[in-house]
Amino acid sequence: MRKRKRQEKIARIYLAAAEIVCRKGHDATTLLEIGQAVGLTKAGLYHYFQAKNELLYGMLSYAMDLVQREVLDPLAAIPSLDDKLRALTWNYARLIMRNGQHFTRLLDQTNILPAAQARRINRRRRAFYETVRGLMAEAQRTGHIPPHINVSVAALSFFGVLTFTATWYRQAGPLTSEQLAAEITQLVVERMLLASPPSGPHPPR
Amino acid sequence: MRKRKRQEKIARIYLAAAEIVCRKGHDATTLLEIGQAVGLTKAGLYHYFQAKNELLYGMLSYAMDLVQREVLDPLAAIPSLDDKLRALTWNYARLIMRNGQHFTRLLDQTNILPAAQARRINRRRRAFYETVRGLMAEAQRTGHIPPHINVSVAALSFFGVLTFTATWYRQAGPLTSEQLAAEITQLVVERMLLASPPSGPHPPR
Question: Which residues are CB-contacts of B117 (< 8 A; sequence separation ≥ 6)?
C-alpha cells in the first residue's frame, strides 16, 4: 500500500515535470519549480529524486513503461492481425492524448539525457518501432497489407501521424479524444495499411 | 549578379547554421562556429548577420520561402486535384530529404525565436497548413476524398508523416530519396486520401 502510494506520487511528479520541461526547456527548468508544481519543497522532492537528470531519466522510462502497459501488452490477447493493428493505433492515440503529449514531445529530445541513459531509452524506443514494424510485416505476409507496401516506411509513417498528434491535440478542441483516436485509426489502419478498400459507399469519381 | 551571389552565400550559411543548431541546440551554438562551418571569420559573418537571432529568423524565413517556391507555387500549373495532392506530397518529401531535414526540425522549435519573430513564422506555417487543408477540402467536395474523412485530421496526418521523415531519413539508407518520396506519396495520397481503392491487384483476404 505504501509502495503503491509512492508510485502514484512519483507518476504525478513525472507528469508535472514533463509539462514544465516541454514548456521551458530542460536547461531552464529547476527541481524547485517541479516540486512547487506538485506541492513539494525542494527537500520534499529530494526524498524522491536527488538530481534533475535522475528525474528526467525516470520520466522517460516511465513514458516507455506506459507504452508497454497500455499499448503493447494488450495486443497479446487479440487473435486477429487486423484487430491488433487497430488496437495498437487506438491505444497509442488514446495514451498520447490522455497524458502522453508532453512525454511524447520529450522522447523526441532523448538526447538531453547523459549518453548512457539516452542509449537505454533509445533502445526501448527502437524496440517499440521494431514491434510495430514486425506486426505490419506479419500482416503483409498473411495478406492483410498489400505486397507492394514498404512496411518500414509504413511503420515510420504510423509513428509520424501518431507522435505528431502530441503537438496539435487540444483537450478543448471540437473532437473528443475518442473521436480523434477513431479518425486516426480510420486513416492509418483502415485506409493506409489494410488491403481491402474501406467499407461504406464510395463517392462517384 | 552580385545580388545573386550574396543570396547563394546566405543560403549556404542558413543550411550550415540549421545543421549546427539542430545538433547542438540554439543556446550552445555560437556565431563563430557557424562562420567557421562556411569558411568565414566572425567578422566576415557579421557582414551578413549582426546577431544570432537575426540569422535564426532569416533561416526559418528562408525555410518557408523554400516551401512556397518548391511545394506550393508549382501547384498552380496542375489542373487536377488528384495530381495537385500527389505533387504537393512528392515535392514536400523531396524538399525535406534534399536539404530541409534540419530546417523542418527547427521549424518545430519556432519558439526559440523572440515572440514577434516567432509569430511571423508561425503565421506562415499556419498558412501552409490551411492551404493543404483547403486543397483536401476541395478534393472532398468534388468526390476525390470520401465524405466520411475529417480533412483537418487528414491534413495534420499529412504533416505528421512528412515532417517525421526529417527525423529518420538518411542519405545512406537503402532507398533513394526519389523512392522514398514515391512510397510516401503512395501511402498518403493513393491510399490514405483518395477515394478509389489503390490500383494493382489485391492479395486474397
Answer: B53, B57
